[in-house]
Amino acid sequence: MRVVVIGAGLAGLMAAQQLHDYGHEVVVLDKGKSPGGRLATRRIGHATFDHGAQFFTVREAEFEHHVQQWIQAGVVREWCKGFSAEDGHPRYIGTHGMSGVAKHLAKDVDVRCNTFVFEVSRNEDTSWSTKIDDGTVFQSDALVVTCPLPQAYSLLITAHVDIPEALLKCEYDRTIGLLAVLDIESAVPAPGGVQNPNESLQFVADNCMKGISHIPALTLHFSPAFSEQHWDVEPHALHQLLIHHAQPFLRDARIVESQVKKWRFATPRTPWLERIWQHESLVIAGDAMSGPKVEGAALSGLAAANALSESLN
């Protein structure tokens, strides 16, 4: 069968890879410059940053199976077993950055980035038409939508699908981030991450200690409350405010270059209790469907592929 997947984040890529393995024809459409969504790694000069998801954990055997494959392929490795105190539960990261997981999943699938989906409609024969901004229309037998739920709703409104109200009302926390290149090592303690160090910050990561940057480089994710409060602050003033909050993690280091990053749909506040929502040949999946973690997104994508494959056969 022909399947269109909207969104090349982890859920979309897991769904696409699984459907591809089942023998279906799949195309993934994403407005971003590269696949991955919040599995995001970027460079500033000679520094490398994970600026979205910082790590992930494994709780369920189904996800463990895939993670072990990634480890064997050299795509993923263990970072540590805790931050303030070891709890014995591994935290995993992309060997060269979190985006490496996305690139690995995308290598055998037709993923088209810089592609903005403009409209989705249902055809008379129950197939789907997905129109992108240049006027191209992709025809498919099934559709998987993995973008944040507000975006999913805006796309599907023209398809006249009766989506549950509770699903539509899902709200998201925002996250403001600061990426800072340093001249010397930071004051972040081993193993290179600090969770909830104060009311303003949610996580601080030293990308050099993580082993993905050759030079000192900090990622600071600010708390939902701080991010909501300062979201609309004038860019220069916001940048200076974030640098001020970074000072306790610098010691004698100096910031030589920095950038602000904003995640509008960072964390769903009220996730849907099921891994997917399905209506015939349409499946909505993503981290808002089964928990706002990397594992939740992955399992939702796999559930979407399995549900569609069963209904299509």
Q: Assess the beta-strand content as a share of residues.
A: 25-35%
User: How many DSSP-defined strands?
Assistant: 18
Class derived from helix and strand content: alpha+beta
Could you estimate the helical fraction of the residues in percent?
Answer: 25-40%
Low-confidence stretches: none
**What is the number of domains?**
2
In the CATH scheme, what's the topology name of the largest domain?
FAD/NAD(P)-binding domain
SSE succession: EHEEEHEEHEEEEEHHEEEHEHHEEEHH
The level 1 CATH classification of the largest domain is Alpha Beta
Descriptive notes:
By secondary structure, this protein is of the alpha+beta class. It has 2 domains: 2-170 and 270-312, FAD/NAD(P)-binding domain (3-Layer(bba) Sandwich); 172-268, Polyamine Oxidase, Chain A, domain 2, CATH 3.90.660. It has 10 helices and 18 strands. It is globular, with a radius of gyration of 20 Å. The mean pLDDT is 95.
Task: List its traits.
single chain; 313 residues; FAD/NAD(P)-binding domain; Polyamine Oxidase, Chain A, domain 2; 2 domains; 6-stranded mixed sheet; 10 helices; 18 strands
Question: How does the SSE layout of this entry go?
Answer:
Layout: E1 2-6, H1 10-21, E2 25-29, E3 41-44, E4 47-50, H2 61-72, E5 76-80, E6 91-94, H3 99-106, E7 110-112, E8 117-122, E9 128-132, E10 137-140, E11 142-145, H4 149-156, H5 165-168, E12 172-182, E13 193-195, E14 201-206, H6 207-210, E15 217-222, H7 224-230, H8 235-246, E16 255-268, E17 277-279, E18 282-284, H9 287-290, H10 294-312
Parallel strand pairs: 1-2, 1-11, 2-7, 11-18
Antiparallel strand pairs: 3-4, 5-6, 8-9, 9-10, 12-15, 12-16, 13-14, 14-15, 17-18
Helix pairs in contact: 1-3, 1-10
